[in-house]
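User: I would dearly like some help making sense of a protein record. This is the protein in question:
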Amino acid sequence: MPEKIKNFINGQWVDATGGKTFESRNPADYRDVIGIVPDSDEKDVNAAVKAARAAYPIWSAIPAPKRGEILYRAAEILAKRKQELGECVTREMGKVIAEGLGDVQEAIDISYYMAGEGRRLSGETVPSELANKDAKSVRVPIGVFGLITPWNFPIAIPSWKITPALIAGNTVVFKPAEETPVCATRFVEILEEAGLLPGVVNLVHGFGETAGEPMVRHPGVDAVAFTGSNEVGSRLAGICGTLQKHFMMETGGKNPIIIMDDADLNLAVEGALWGGFGTTGQRCTAASRLIVHQRIYDQFVKAFSKRAEDLVMGNGLDQRVQMGPVVSFAQQEKVLSYIEIGKREGAKLILGGKLYRRGKAALGTFIEPTIFVDVKPSMRIAKEEIFGPVVSILRVKNLHEAIKVANDVSFGLSAAIYSQNVNHTAIAERDLDVGLIYINASTIGAEVQLPFGGTKRTGLGPRDAGGRGGALDFYTKWKVIYRDFSGTLQKAQIDN
């Protein structure tokens, strides 16, 4: 029997007020119904926001180190349940089990990291220009946050947003992707077990139009963080701009790997394989463009396509499987439509391009690893985010052309270069217009102690995860305090 999933509002697990539900199914086998999930609406959102507002003054008054102790306990529970949670990620989202476990490990890492920030929410103390006066800045919480997360990292990305919001003293209304509600529920259950007070985190399942947008528009929500499609993010940015709400979004990438003629070819092939087909290409950091020097182009294409052809596909719970399904029938149709676009544009399809139907894979949403060559930078498959196992290979004459091609898209999340020439890599570091750069590594592999995000249409506002310019710059606001203990009226900037 499928599990009956519920919303979590004011410390209680409850059904949607309207009684409607939807199913969460395993994309590797659509016969497998994982959960029956509340299809929430504005009434449920209203109840969740009310609970978060009531909890805010209580939670924000708790010393940050004590809030950190709760996050530390959550990290410990996540670590103990890593295998179980990783299997849940694989079953509900489709990524292979090694990646499902990696998804959970990111949540463990960020929970420990943000727990430590409870003793390091640092501001700045500076000298005053007047005697017997001090001056400082402190971080303070903002209020109630609405958090909307995607399906491709169903435990990691919620943790990126919820843990900094909590350590800063905010309360949360959390709307996860409708494709992965069970994973989101498991994460919130762990936060509850770790000792969160009622109302601090509220979970509302449902769809964007009926639950997500009402949450964004709600006058009781002070700020919104969103990870998902550029189309939806742009719409929410407009709403928040009109309502003067703090807003942050991360909306994807069209990430290149530059492979120079002096690259370690075997290493570059492995990096391109991982970047292009890891998570079945369903990462915002996926390497969907390979920009290859003309001297090694044919050699690289031959080696890369052979390795891609040998990838083992199937249910990700099988340890032998290297690539799972795309997340849904809707995603399957989108990817197949882009493959047809590539053909019409004149790119040469040399591998894949169709559904994978062998054995039990016929019961899921599998697409073969797909490679296009003779791709021009102006083609849609070279410019638009596909979010599936489709890789375009472009030929360039030199590093200057490679960087120009790499930058000639509307996204700027991550990029990589494979080269043994330190000057080439230094120039790439300087000139690639992206937020994350990898040298002799794939476009995948961000760590939680540094901010995660990009340039151009990749995102808006401060970035996820840690470090300067990271999440705490979004989940806190600055308060500047001047204290005059001279006992007299001193006037700054006034000649005496």
Notes: The chain has two domains: 3-251+458-481, 256-439.
